[in-house]
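Summary for the funding panel

The consortium committed to producing paired sequence-structure records for every protein in the target list. Below we show the first two records in order, beginning with the earlier of the two.
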Amino acid sequence: MEVLPAAGRLTASDTIEGGPPPDHDHDHEEQHEETSEQAPARRERARTAAALVGAVLLGALLAAVGITAWDRGETPALREPEDAPLLGSLPAAWGLRPYEGFGAWVDVFDFVPGHDGGSATPAIGPEHLEAMAGFGVRTLYLQAATGGSLDVVDPELVGRFLVTAHELDMSVVAWYLPFLSEPSSDLARLGAIADFEFRGHRFDGLAVDIEWATGVPDPVERSRRLVELSEDLEDVAAGGMIGAIVPPPAQLEDVNPAFWPGFPWAELGRHYDVFLPMAYWTERLAPWDDPYLLATHSMSRVRALVGDPELPVHVVGGVADAAPEGHYPSFLEAAEDEGAVGYSVYDYRSITVGGMARMSTTSTSPPTSAPVATTRS
């Protein structure tokens, strides 16, 4: 999901000729005992437990704050973070709900001032979440950590996003791109996300962006480290559901088999509960430049490779800055036809007002302004 460098997009290294070095014949280690038949059962237990905890929390919150402005058909008045209620330390009830419905993606380059030499005035701030909610966005996918620090990026600002989103009845799923060159650092950052709390507000989910190949050129060793990290992450998640943001199978099997040969689909299925394939049709050549074809293939093929026909899938389309607005209806049709639990387009900064309107789930007129207000045919 990174923008710079353009991970998830076709680059010079994302070609068969320019792929990573060939297999160095590292030995696979026996890493798991759970069978593919046990994985769906574990996911079901996680969903049930999360639902029970969520119901208890929801009851407590409703009793504390009463009926929301959304229930009255009004737009909530946003309070400053310092005025937000102190909810106390709440357990992480990571379930499937945050992955359901319409989502919006924001990366560190678009919300952290001056990140990696970027703009001192980011394109997106907590004040933009009201417009997101107006378009029917249910979940903000926020890049909450990156290299250079073992902590959450700009904790105060991230906290303001959490408070504002929750005031708008939006969930926030934190995402992180592991480099795998130092797995202990990757795990530390994921742990920091899981433990992060701002005035009683926590993330509603955690998703791992699995696409970085440069850090570990040998694909066998890369897969081994990824599976080991994923296994350790289950302890961090404390039984909650975890998302895996993955390349589209067409990229790994057809477009560029040398990019990540032996991608550990089945092993990841034992540790992740919902998969988010990056079906970026704008970055592909025919036939995969068809939004319907790439999206439907990504969802059905991921389920087949993981070995779970009922696997929850949230399909991610895009990339928005190159996607004609007329492509979105067929993308949404694909999501419906394949039974996706949710859908989104990467990313919010680059999608047009018209694009958001076509993706919108609101029954009333959506907002007429967004970070980028242009139109593509």
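The next record, for a separate protein in the list, is shown here:
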Amino acid sequence: MGLPRYIAQMIVAEHTYRPITGTIVSYGNNTVHLSPAEAVELLATFSIRPRIERFEIDRETYGRESLGRDVITMRSFFQSFSDAELKIVDVSPYEGAELIFDLNEAVPPALHGIADFVYDGSVLDNLFNPAMGLRNASALAKADGRIVMVNDWTKNLGRGSYVSMSPDWYLDYFSANNFADAKVLLCKSDRRRPQDRVRIFEWEPVGFNSERFPSFDQAVRYFFDGDLGQCTFRKDGARFLCFKGDDKDYVLSFSRCDDGEDVRLFEDIVIATVAEKGSGSTFEVNPSQLVYRDGQRTLQYMISCLKFMRSARRYPSKEYRPLAVEVRDLGLFEV
């Protein structure tokens, strides 16, 4: 996958939200799906003038050959708007990697906390041990470091991806490890028209949203007080099943998108995550899936997710300017 155009937009949008500085660690040397002219155009949509006079053309990555045009290197992409230093990690010196270790194994302690920004352009879905790959990204990141990951959910099953992780797999990890913020985005395209626009949806945490429950106390009272019995309800396109058990409280959600549109699994879906560590974040805690959580873990999930939903970071947002022509809503982006 590398670094497609719509993810490049997200990264620059993240930079405008909070500047990307210091050290960037990338899982592999990613192919950037932008020509020099396209990179200038993208930056212009954010009113950014390139910091470099000339873009370096990618002569190294394997993925560049399939694009049919000259594209820029990952290093020059980041240099065009940031002064951060890029370091590439891989299992071998393949494609110019500088940090050599197997992401299926625990990252060496000497590398803990070296990164201000970690990027994964479809490495987790090619690891035999993706959970370790996610923990390693968290271990590499500093206390206020950020992690951006882009991996297949339904796009390449049986056609290249090793594994597929659900949106809640990511969200549960970030909540269990007390991240300061986390957004899980579904990037949907039609496999019959792969060059069409990509539509972006924000995956909402299970069970409540900030509009329905403006305070954590209200959410807790709704789900944990009184006899809910069994009930179903719909709100903003979401469908939930809530019921009380003898020793656990459950809130199960079904397909949920930020504008109420269902996600159909016959479409190609890529999951992008944007997460920020906090001073109290960990990386080694294993989350429990929804129906197996005890009360304490459920409370931790709710506390974290309410914090995520209240953050000012938004994708899409009014500040996130798409390159698409005649866009009717902010969920459409060029491939």
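Regarding this second record: The helical segments are 5-17, 36-45, 74-79, 130-140, 167-176, 216-224, 295-310. The chain is about 20% helix and 20% strand.
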